[in-house]
């Protein structure tokens, strides 16, 4: 049994007791408005992740415009991708205090502003600030809420729902590659970025669709694990129990702080009732004081939960498999990002531009990526299949493709490898599911924020590293080999930790005795 899945942004009360049954199921869970959340997340992935995966087009324009080295120019794309993910833990704090909807709308405005300001860039360093930093932070403020909201609205078909929503990355890469190529050809790259900024304002609409579950719905939201979920959790159950045995992220301090907050609000309300006979100015002052007090309580609750998740006595980092998951994320994402940034340049070196113009290799990755996410999501939801095993197999396939890609120098060979990269990278739709199985839904926003932060670090240094290696060797081969080997190290960490947990079963009883 899972504990009740509480919305980190809207309810900070106690978890309901496990085993009880809701009197009336919420029709919006696994249905109704839940599919609007999937649609919203789908368009977020199109506008954010799709645009970022199509930055190879703009990267070539920047190389010609500013005449800088490939390593320095690649920092623009990698900053945007990296910061989008690196700010994840801090966006978790925003979600805790403001909620997913408000966070996403603010992020949409900031992202559009970054694109528009970048149209006036006079050098690469200007793009670091406008496109890398401003647009990157805005993207992060929309991306994390889009993932978290899908997890909150789905119980039985989480993998499928996440798979459908994240297919927007594939659609977006295909659409945005064609759109940016057309806009750069017809209007120039500056006007293309200005138009893209206007399009990005649609992220505010996506954020507005992220309607929060009401506190009543959250209290009545319970999850009864099906047999498929039990099978999926076998590889992760020991580490999950370790977190739970520690009293998930310090419930006692939360109870004490909640009591103190209720006492503050109660005193304010009592003062408001006692002052009804007073003047209108006094009533206005009391209402203002009450509003400020409520805002202060909300901020304190949000910060307390955010802080305890990362630095509390029973923080997320006490989960060994979750720590191994973070180490894997530090190496994995760059192997997926590097081809998108540098494939257009590789195609040009191999004199394959004519074939690539007919059907770009990045578009092949994007299209097959769509099917990979949906198919892997469906497979993971089968009763006899473990999500963890599907996740590992997809990772092994992807790292093999990364190591093989430099050996292919024909369009057909590159197309086949790119198709395999697209399909195996569909495991990204399983990352929220695996994370949720490790830490529970209540801490999904903070935990997934840490994971995408690690991915962001990987994306931040991957493309510039590949460009730097090219500047030295005049080849991209070593970039893919080194990235693939580092990726393999991350996968080994994922394999080692569950084995260590099984070899030391006494650790759980020791931790329970300490509690």
TrEMBL record:
Q: Where in the cell is it found?
A: Membrane
InterPro entries given in the database record: MFS (IPR011701), MFS_dom (IPR020846), MFS_trans_sf (IPR036259), Proton-linked_MCT (IPR050327)
Q: Transmembrane residues, as ranges?
A: 33-55, 75-95, 102-120, 126-148, 160-180, 192-210, 321-341, 361-379, 386-405, 411-434, 446-466, 478-496
**UniProt domain Major facilitator superfamily (MFS) profile: residue ranges:** 37-502
Pfam family example for this protein?
MFS_1
**Cellular component GO terms, alphabetical:** membrane
Keyword Disulfide bond appears in the UniProt entry: no
Principal localisation: membrane
Record carries keyword Secreted: no
UniProt GO MF annotations: monocarboxylic acid transmembrane transporter activity
Keyword annotations from UniProtKB, A to Z? Membrane, Transmembrane, Transmembrane helix
Its topology with respect to the membrane?
Multi-pass membrane protein
**Name used for this protein in its record:** MOT14 protein
Protein species of origin: Copsychus sechellarum
State the organism's lineage.
Eukaryota, Metazoa, Chordata, Craniata, Vertebrata
Supply the gene name. Answer: Slc16a14
């Amino acid at each position: 049994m899972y504990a009740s899945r509480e919305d980190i942004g809207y309810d900070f009360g106690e978890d309901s007791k496990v085993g009880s049954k809701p009197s009336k199921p919420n029709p919006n869970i696994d249905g109704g408005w839940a599919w609007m959340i999937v649609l919203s997340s789908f368009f977020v992935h199109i506008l954010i992740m799709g645009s970022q995966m199509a930055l190879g087009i703009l990267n070539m324009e920047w190389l010609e415009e500013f005449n800088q080295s490939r390593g320095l120019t690649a920092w623009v794309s990698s900053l945007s991708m990296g910061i989008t993910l690196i700010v994840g833990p801090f966006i978790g704090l925003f979600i805790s205090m403001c909620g997913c909807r408000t966070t996403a709308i603010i992020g949409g405005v900031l992202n559009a502003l970054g694109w528009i300001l970048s149209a006036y860039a006079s050098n690469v360093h200007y793009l670091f600030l406008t496109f890398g930093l401003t647009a990157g932070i805005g993207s992060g403020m929309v991306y994390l809420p889009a993932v978290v909201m899908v997890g909150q609205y789905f119980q039985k078909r989480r993998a499928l729902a996440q798979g459908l929503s994240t297919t927007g990355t594939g659609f977006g890469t295909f659409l945005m590659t064609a759109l940016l190529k057309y806009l750069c050809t017809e209007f120039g790259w500056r006007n293309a970025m200005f138009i893209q900024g206007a399009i990005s304002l649609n992220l505010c609409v996506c954020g507005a669709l992220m309607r929060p579950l009401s506190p009543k719905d959250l209290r009545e939201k319970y999850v009864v694990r099906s047999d498929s979920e039990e099978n999926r959790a076998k590889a992760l159950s020991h580490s999950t129990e370790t977190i739970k045995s520690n009293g998930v992220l310090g419930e006692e301090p939360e109870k004490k702080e909640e009591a103190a907050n209720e006492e503050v609000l109660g005193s304010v309300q009592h003062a408001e009732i006692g002052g009804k006979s007073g003047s209108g100015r006094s009533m206005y002052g009391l209402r203002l004081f009450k509003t400020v007090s409520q805002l202060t309580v909300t901020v304190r609750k949000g910060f307390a939960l955010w802080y305890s998740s990362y630095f509390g006595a029973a923080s997320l980092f006490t989960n060994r498999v979750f720590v191994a998951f973070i180490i894997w994320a530090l190496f994995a994402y760059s192997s997926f990002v590097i081809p998108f940034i540098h494939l257009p340049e590789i195609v040009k070196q191999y004199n394959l531009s004519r074939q690539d113009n007919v059907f770009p290799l990045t578009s092949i990755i994007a299209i097959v990526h769509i099917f990979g996410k949906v198919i892997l999501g469906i497979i993971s939801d089968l009763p006899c299949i473990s999500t963890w095993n599907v996740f590992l197999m997809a990772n092994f396939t992807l790292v093999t493709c990364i190591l093989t890609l430099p050996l292919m120098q024909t369009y057909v060979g590159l197309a086949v490898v790119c198709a395999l990269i697209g399909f195996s990278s569909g495991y990204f739709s399983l990352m929220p599911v695996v994370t949720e199985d490790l830490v529970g839904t209540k801490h999904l926003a903070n935990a997934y924020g840490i994971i995408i932060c690690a991915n962001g670090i990987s994306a931040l240094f991957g493309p510039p590293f590949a460009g730097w290696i090219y500047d030295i060797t005049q080849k991209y081969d070593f970039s893919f080999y080194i990235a693939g080997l580092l990726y393999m190290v991350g996968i080994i960490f994922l394999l080692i930790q569950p084995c260590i947990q099984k070899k030391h079963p006494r650790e759980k009883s020791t931790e329970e005795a300490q509690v």
